[in-house]
Amino acid sequence: MTSSKLKRDEILLLFDVDGTLTFPRSVVQPEFEEFFYSKVKPRATIGIVGGSDLEKMFEQLNGKKILNEFDFVFPENGLVQIERAQEVGKQNIIKHLGESTLKRFINFVLRYLSELDIPIKRGTFIEFRNGMMNVCPIGRQCSREERNMFAAYDQEHKVREQMIATLKKEFADIDLTYSIGGQISFDVFPHGWDKTYCLRHIEANYKNKYKEIHFFGDKTEQGGNDFEIYTDPRVIGHKVTSPHDTKDILTEILEL
């Protein structure tokens, strides 16, 4: 049976946000939003699974209406689970790792960044979330222009890759995963707390309901924050580079 022949409650489409439904750190385009809600939503169960927190999802997808538009909203790699505008589950990194381990990690990161020589630095170098930490060498308070500049610099000098290699060596005794997502930062979380975490919720509550689960994401290479779910055998993965790609693939598989 092809995807186009499945009923809405038999097919689940999961989407990364940044670079998939929107251009990087941009707001969803009106024409894409119209296509998505009027054409895709009636044909399939839809969910978003992003690395960022819920507020950043609101910023990029035009506000709190996503809580009602999407069947599933999975911020922070699915470590927070929301259905029909209600939070139904949440994981917590503080309880998992413990305060002493967290403090040791944060102190090391701040020392490393204080000695890191890059063209510019701004503010907010570590962002603490429910299920992960987000580390940003340039600082999340940079402007769009500065963000793009760092992305190009990082592509050449591998700032994030080198920092992750150092952290893996220093904290080899701690069960942590490092995942590059977006243009300027990387996520740190316990092993298994990647985007496949949302599949635990689906399997626990909707076992065998969906005949197909599709995932759309842009950071699908190893080390990217879409890699684990993109390559998961339970999922049909689609690599995209922009919302245009996402639209084209959806049009094809759903025969829109």
Automatic annotation (TrEMBL):
<feature type="binding site">
    <location>
        <position position="140"/>
    </location>
    <ligand>
        <name>alpha-D-mannose 1-phosphate</name>
    </ligand>
</feature>
<dbReference type="GO" id="GO:0046872">
    <property type="term" value="F:metal ion binding"/>
</dbReference>
<dbReference type="InterPro" id="IPR043169">
    <property type="entry name" value="PMM_cap"/>
</dbReference>
<feature type="binding site">
    <location>
        <position position="187"/>
    </location>
    <ligand>
        <name>alpha-D-mannose 1-phosphate</name>
    </ligand>
</feature>
<comment type="pathway">
    <text>Nucleotide-sugar biosynthesis; GDP-alpha-D-mannose biosynthesis; alpha-D-mannose 1-phosphate from D-fructose 6-phosphate: step 2/2.</text>
</comment>
<dbReference type="GO" id="GO:0004615">
    <property type="term" value="F:phosphomannomutase activity"/>
</dbReference>
<dbReference type="GO" id="GO:0009298">
    <property type="term" value="P:GDP-mannose biosynthetic process"/>
</dbReference>
<comment type="similarity">
    <text>Belongs to the eukaryotic PMM family.</text>
</comment>
<dbReference type="GO" id="GO:0071456">
    <property type="term" value="P:cellular response to hypoxia"/>
</dbReference>
<dbReference type="InterPro" id="IPR023214">
    <property type="entry name" value="HAD_sf"/>
</dbReference>
<keyword id="KW-0460">Magnesium</keyword>
<feature type="binding site">
    <location>
        <position position="147"/>
    </location>
    <ligand>
        <name>alpha-D-mannose 1-phosphate</name>
    </ligand>
</feature>
<dbReference type="GO" id="GO:0006013">
    <property type="term" value="P:mannose metabolic process"/>
</dbReference>
<feature type="binding site">
    <location>
        <position position="218"/>
    </location>
    <ligand>
        <name>Mg(2+) 1</name>
    </ligand>
</feature>
<dbReference type="InterPro" id="IPR036412">
    <property type="entry name" value="HAD-like_sf"/>
</dbReference>
<dbReference type="InterPro" id="IPR005002">
    <property type="entry name" value="PMM"/>
</dbReference>
<keyword id="KW-0479">Metal-binding</keyword>
<keyword id="KW-0963">Cytoplasm</keyword>
<dbReference type="Pfam" id="PF03332">
    <property type="entry name" value="PMM"/>
</dbReference>
<feature type="active site" description="Proton donor/acceptor">
    <location>
        <position position="18"/>
    </location>
</feature>
<feature type="binding site">
    <location>
        <position position="230"/>
    </location>
    <ligand>
        <name>Mg(2+) 2</name>
    </ligand>
</feature>
<feature type="binding site">
    <location>
        <position position="129"/>
    </location>
    <ligand>
        <name>alpha-D-mannose 1-phosphate</name>
    </ligand>
</feature>
<feature type="binding site">
    <location>
        <position position="18"/>
    </location>
    <ligand>
        <name>Mg(2+) 1</name>
    </ligand>
</feature>
<dbReference type="InterPro" id="IPR006379">
    <property type="entry name" value="HAD-SF_hydro_IIB"/>
</dbReference>
<feature type="active site" description="Nucleophile">
    <location>
        <position position="16"/>
    </location>
</feature>
<feature type="binding site">
    <location>
        <position position="16"/>
    </location>
    <ligand>
        <name>Mg(2+) 1</name>
    </ligand>
</feature>
<dbReference type="GO" id="GO:0006487">
    <property type="term" value="P:protein N-linked glycosylation"/>
</dbReference>
<comment type="subunit">
    <text>Homodimer.</text>
</comment>
<dbReference type="GO" id="GO:0005829">
    <property type="term" value="C:cytosol"/>
</dbReference>
<comment type="function">
    <text>Involved in the synthesis of the GDP-mannose and dolichol-phosphate-mannose required for a number of critical mannosyl transfer reactions.</text>
</comment>
<keyword id="KW-0413">Isomerase</keyword>
<protein>
    <recommendedName>
        <fullName>Phosphomannomutase</fullName>
        <ecNumber>5.4.2.8</ecNumber>
    </recommendedName>
</protein>
<feature type="binding site">
    <location>
        <position position="185"/>
    </location>
    <ligand>
        <name>alpha-D-mannose 1-phosphate</name>
    </ligand>
</feature>
<feature type="binding site">
    <location>
        <position position="232"/>
    </location>
    <ligand>
        <name>Mg(2+) 2</name>
    </ligand>
</feature>
<feature type="binding site">
    <location>
        <position position="25"/>
    </location>
    <ligand>
        <name>alpha-D-mannose 1-phosphate</name>
    </ligand>
</feature>
